[in-house]
Write a structure and sequence with these properties.
single chain, two-stranded antiparallel sheet, 1 helix, 7 strands, NDR1-like, membrane, transmembrane
Length: about 110
């Protein structure tokens, strides 16, 4: 599983290898934890002011993108590998924590 974080469509961090391969049973949830790394946010003065203004209003919105290779198992039949992608907007407060409005939010998922 790989992930990237964006602020206003500019990538500000990424991580690869969040999880080793594993089997997940049906109707199950797996919690993933990790830290994004990367260069510091390189923006012009206008973009920096947008960030500062968002933060002063109490909410900064980041977009998280995740992708992973998955296989489906239906009884004894295994599918070929598919690349699954998920995109989520996450609202972060001035304290750096995810705001309640973003918790339990359903995110769009698509396959390639």
């Amino acid at each position: 599983m790989d992930g990237s974080a964006y602020y206003k469509d500019q990538r500000i961090g990424s991580i690869s290898g969040l999880l080793p391969p594993f089997y997940q049973g049906p109707k199950n949830t797996t919690i993933v934890a990790g830290s994004f790394t990367g260069a510091t946010l390189t923006v012009n003065s206008q973009r920096w002011m947008e960030f500062i203004n968002d933060r002063s209003r109490g909410t900064v919105v980041f977009r998280l993108e995740f992708s992973a290779t998955i296989r489906f198992r239906i009884q004894s039949w295994d599918s070929k590998r598919h690349r699954m992608h998920a995109n989520c907007d996450v609202d972060v407060g001035q304290d750096g924590f995810i705001l309640p409005v973003s918790k339990d939010r359903r995110c769009p998922v698509y396959f390639t």
